[in-house]
Amino acid sequence: MPYALPWTMRPAIAPTLLRVESSIGFRNDGVAAATLFTGGYAIVPTTLGVYARWGVTNSVLSTPNAPATHEIPTGAATNPLLMALFTPELTKGLRLSVFAAATIPIGTGGGNTPQPLTASSIATGIPTRSSMDNALFAVNYFTPIAGLGLAFLRWGFTFQVEATVLQLIRVRGEAHRSASDEFRTNFTVGASVGYWLHRYLTASAELHYQHWLSAPNLLATPNTHAGQASFEVGLRTNLPLSPTVLARPGLSFGMGISGAMADRDYKVLHLDVPFTF
């Protein structure tokens, strides 16, 4: 059944998968990139899979006590994420998506005295990924995650929605401003529509919204928003490499509608290269 794979949202079909994706955010005070690596195995093909995700950030930021033209490139490593995806077909063309995950809080840029540029670099991953993968970049927090979604696949169209709750639990960095709350609760929603223009080409667009349900100290920080809205649109090719291997590289463009992405005038190019088996 033709399925238009989304960009930043989760898949609604559980495949055996290798995926490399890089989001590059051009903003009014520098450039930031987040590269994520995902791999997993479908225990029950198309219905139940287990996966792991990890990534790195790279950014060019103006140094605080130097002229604005003096910029230093720096990088950081995200938390690893372990996840499971259950995607049964409820009826012809309609699939449920149940998602559960947790992070391992070992990313760089955490603790009470992180290296400042590393901490700044890891923080840029949040808006660069449209605030939809916050747990990867919350390196001071262990984060259990649960989500639900629905996808309708008929006539070459894919309509997909999802909602996710992230419960951040601080395990280190209590003396640092990035972990000022012992607990934080984050909520994300997304909607996607895609269409198979040709057997080798799909187009898709998605809307994202993230909201902090509880993060009192974070939200008391000046210029911090409770919510973040963004959109993303792009084209993806579908290239059979063998009877069982499909490459689906694609490129999308995204930008903020509100929140930090809009404040900093983020424009994001997202290069996504997944292989399904």
Secondary structure: number of strands: 17
**Any idea what the CATH superfamily is called?**
monomeric porin ompg
Strand line-up of the largest beta sheet? 1-2-3-5-7-9-10-11-12-13-16-17
CA distance, first residue to last residue? 15 Å
Order of helices and strands: EEEEEEEHHEEEEEHEEEEHE
Q: What's the architecture in CATH terms? A: Beta Barrel
Total DSSP helices: 4
How much of the polypeptide forms β-strand, as a percent range? Answer: over 45%
Mean pLDDT: 94
How many separate domains make up the residues?
A: 1
Largest sheet: 12 strands, antiparallel, barrel
CATH class placement: Mainly Beta
Tell me the helix content.
under 10%
Class computed from helices, strands and strand pairing = mainly beta
Outline: globular
In short:
With 277 residues, the protein is mainly beta.
Fold and architecture overview:
- The chain has 277 residues and is mainly beta.
- It has one domain: Porin.
- The chain is 9% helix and 57% strand.
- The protein contains four helices and 17 strands.
- The protein has helices at residues 116-128, 134-137, 216-219, 260-263; strands spanning 17-27, 30-44, 48-62, 71-77, 81-86, 89-91, 94-103, 141-142, 144-154, 157-170, 183-198, 201-214, 227-237, 239-240, 246-247, 250-258, 267-276.
- A hairpin with a 2-residue loop joins strand 11 and strand 12 (201-214).
- The radius of gyration is 18 Å and the shape is globular.
